[in-house]
Amino acid sequence: MMKDNTPLFHGDIIEGSRILYTASPFAKGSLIYLQEIGYLKARKPHVSSRAYLPSYLFFIVLSGSGTLNYQGESYRLEEMDCVFIDCTKPYSHNTSDHLWQIAWIHFNGPTMPGIYAKYQERGGLPIFRPKQSDGAAALYTSLKNIYETANSSDYIRDMKINDGLAKILTLIMAESWQPDTQHKNAKKQNIIQIRSYLDEHFTEPISLDALAKMIYINKYYLVKIFKQQFGLTIHQYIQQKRITHAKHLLRFTSRSIESIGAECGMEQPHYFSRIFKKVEGITPSQYREMWQTHKQ
Questions:
Q1: pTM for this model (two decimals)
Q2: How far apart (Å, rounded) are the C-alpha atoms in residues 73 and 120?
Q3: CA-based diameter of the chain, in Å?
Q4: How far apart are the C-alpha atoms of 90 and 64, rounded to whole Å?
Q5: Strands ordered across the beta sheet of 66-70
Q6: 73 to each of 90, 130, 278, how far by Cα in Å?
Q7: Exposed (0-12), middle (13-18) or buried (19+): which is 72, by Cβ within 10 Å?
Q8: In Å, how far are 2, 112, 113 from 29, measured between CA atoms?
Q9: Where does the chain show beta strands of DSSP type E?
Q10: Closest by alpha carbon to 172, among 219, 137, 139?
Q11: What share of the chain is helix, strand, coil (3-state, %, to 5)?
């Protein structure tokens, strides 16, 4: 149970503890920042509802059960189920007769719309149950750490809270792929197979048609689910691998720019330089000069 140095709130309906947090202007402009965090134990069945709240909500059911109503859907919640929603959309949640205990956090930040969009793009749902046996415990531990930080007088607590929220979001994002059938799960495994192939053959000519034939699916569908799973198009993924390999060779070898481009699958020097500058903002020779270790 979360504790702080202020009295717990008690009532006929709920009891628990809560911190209302006011982040600094710096945090609101640059970080993922805390708005509210707490723990509650229901004493009676009740409903909580909000709409158009500029916030994102994560909570975990520690015991008991209840329901989330969100965007026209009703979701049953049991012990260790987790909720992650955009509170600008109307929502409500309520405990069942099996009174629940939950730990929650409201937060926001300038990058949150993009993060939540990525969560949804990858198949993330308003509710999920952590796949790993220790997943719920890891999320709850992160919540407790943020609570303790928010309740402290640490002068860099906004930075520490940002770090804690990033850890929670990382754990949540790992849960965002939600295959609900064996068929979908098989497709996910096929996409991992494609990525493994690209990791080994990124320096070679690669066609989308050939990749699609490897796992017997339509090439346009392959493009779609690859981006859903990994956040990059196949072309972007190959390009990222090639540029990363090129950077390693530029820093730690004395090979010519032309030979490095050719090894990375970009045989035309002008093309290699153009793509490298598009990704890194500088030419390969400028990168080498900037980053290569010079011995005196």
A1: 0.72
A2: 16
A3: 76
A4: 24
A5: 47-50, 91-95, 66-70, 73-77
A6: 11, 21, 44
A7: exposed
A8: 28, 12, 14
A9: 9-10, 14-20, 33-42, 47-50, 56-63, 66-70, 73-77, 82-86, 91-95, 101-108, 127-128
A10: 139
A11: 45, 20, 35
Q: Specify the amino acid at residue 41.
A: K
Reading the chain (296 residues) residue by residue, the pLDDT tens digits are 344 444 455 667 889 999 999 999 999 999 999 999 999 999 999 899 998 999 999 999 999 999 999 999 999 999 999 999 999 999 999 999 999 999 999 999 999 999 999 898 888 999 999 988 889 999 999 999 999 999 999 999 999 999 999 999 999 998 886 544 434 545 556 888 899 999 999 999 999 999 999 988 899 999 988 887 788 899 999 999 999 999 999 998 999 999 999 999 998 989 999 999 999 999 999 999 988 765 44
With tokens 């799973």, the residue in question is 229
